[in-house]
Specification:
There is one protein chain. Strands 5-4-6-7-8-10 form a six-stranded mixed sheet. A four-stranded parallel sheet has the order 1-2-3-9, covered by helices on one side. The protein has helices at residues 11-19, 43-56, 75-89, 110-116, 130-137, 178-193; strands at 2-3, 25-27, 38-41, 62-67, 100-103, 124-127, 152-156, 172-176, 202-204, 206-209. By secondary structure, the chain is an alpha/beta fold. Helix 1 links the parallel strand 1 (2-3) and strand 2. Helix 2 (43-56) packs across helix 3 (75-89). It has six helices and ten strands; from the N terminus they run E-H-E-E-H-E-H-E-H-E-H-E-E-H-E-E. 33% of the residues are buried. The radius of gyration is 19 Å and the shape is elongated.
Length: 224
């Protein structure tokens, strides 16, 4: 079994599979209650790659946007921790107006729109998920923005389904290499079918794609 988008409701089923020695592999999850093998994405590396691009261009006041439902088994929790660790390592935590901005999937993004109108607005936003990026781009509250002149943006995950908008070029993004991901999954299952039911986790680096959506912050908006 190849388990993706795992939630707490899967715990009993995963425990049974483990007890029955049924080959099961997780995608980008580590669950202490049921320690099944996993193919993990290097979320910390992805965070650092995007953060470094923005820092190199002069950004100090940056924000990571995540869904508020990212708890427990979701990748947002890992990206949240990695982002805060990266900010701390670069002495940037106290320079960010709002290091992490959590929203609900049904949010109209009014609070973020109001934040971006203030004198302490972030000069760059990183989206923790492609779906969240799409939610931002299709929200009419931000159609007055110019990217990257007013705001630099980057995102996790695939962006092929994100609709194009006149005020934003294709986004800088990090994503897994799908060919390598498929190879890792096959390799893990081959080891399990050969009797190694708990092979070590594999951590996959993320591919970085830099576009014109990141640039130097607008003069007067550096830092807080």
């Amino acid at each position: 079994a190849f388990l993706t988008n795992v939630s707490a409701s899967y715990l009993v089923s995963m425990h049974i599979m483990q007890q029955q020695r049924f080959p099961a592999l997780l995608w980008n999850r580590r669950i202490s209650q049921v320690p099944l093998p996993s193919v993990l994405l290097d979320d910390a590396g992805g965070i650092a790659a995007m953060g470094d691009q923005l820092l190199h261009r002069g950004h100090r006041n940056m924000c990571l946007m995540l869904y508020v439902t990212d708890r427990g088994f979701q990748p947002g929790q890992q990206r949240n921790a990695a982002w805060r660790a990266w900010l701390a390592a670069n002495d940037l935590l106290d320079q960010c107006t709002l290091p992490v901005f959590h929203i609900d999937a049904t949010s109209d993004l009014k609070a973020m729109a109001e934040l971006l109108r203030t004198s302490h607005a972030p000069t760059a936003i990183i989206f923790g998920h492609g779906h969240l990026c799409e939610q931002f781009l299709t929200c009419g509250r931000f159609s007055h923005l110019r990217v990257p002149q007013d705001l630099s943006m980057a995102t996790f995950d695939w962006v092929r389904n994100v609709p194009g908008v006149a005020w934003c070029p294709p986004l800088t993004h990090v994503q897994p290499n799908l060919d390598r991901a498929a190879q890792c999954v096959v390799e893990m299952f081959e080891r399990m079918f050969q009797g190694e039911l708990a092979p070590p986790n594999i951590r996959m680096p993320m591919d970085m794609h830099v576009t014109e959506s990141v640039a130097k912050p607008r003069q007067g908006l550096v830092g807080v």
